Amino acid sequence: MTTDPIIQLEHVNVARGNNIILHDLSLTVRAGEHLAILGPNGCGKSTLLKTVTCELYPIVSPETQVHIMGRARWDLTELKRRMGVVAADLPGRQTLTTTGFDAILTGFFSSSTLWPNLHVTDAMRERAEEVLHLVGGEKLRDKFVGEMSAGQQRRIMIGRAMAGTAGEAQMLLLDEPSNALDLAAQRDLREMLRGLAQKGVAILLITHHIADILPEIERIVMMRDGRIVADGSKKELLTAERLSGLFGGEIHMTERDGYWNAW
Known about the structure:
25% strand; six-stranded mixed beta sheet; globular; 30% helix; single chain; alpha/beta; Rossmann fold
């Protein structure tokens, strides 16, 4: 059964300053779909994410269309809650002095901390407890974010992104999620994301690390120089030949337990 698109981009060109970063890009992502956007640093992956979250806007042209969850216009605060965006950067200064549980609650308000003027309802607290369990963060409930390891912080930030998505077409947009994590933390993060994917949370992963691509992700979108150069199945695209062309160097690959590694 065909599901409605969550993300629909048609003939999108995006400039940053005087440079055009995305060139005539078209992409459709449907509800419940897991996919990875793969490409070298500087290929436009993060610009694409900012276009999806309406932080950047395309150059106006007659053929250009951007629809997110069926709508062309959004209040940015509402959209951030609905999309569940997890940025590559670790938490900012205000969030570091917030407990893990309160940091998840900030996801309802798209705020850096729980400011005194924010009203937290019982329903929000109930949802935050549910999310804390989903991300395996129970032991981090009362710990300050600034006292957590990078892996623990990333776990809480994923919970924060999920907080406001209950009852919606849930999707997590993850920008280079394994950045700044050691090998053990990377493994823990990937296993947590697998659990979320298996529970029906759609995963859109932006990465240049092949090992980040979860076994549940079947669709790969390859980007180079601001363009989509391939869009297909993991079996078709995750090959040494394809990756060597994408990254501009000789690459070898191996697979184990559904994960791929390249060198």
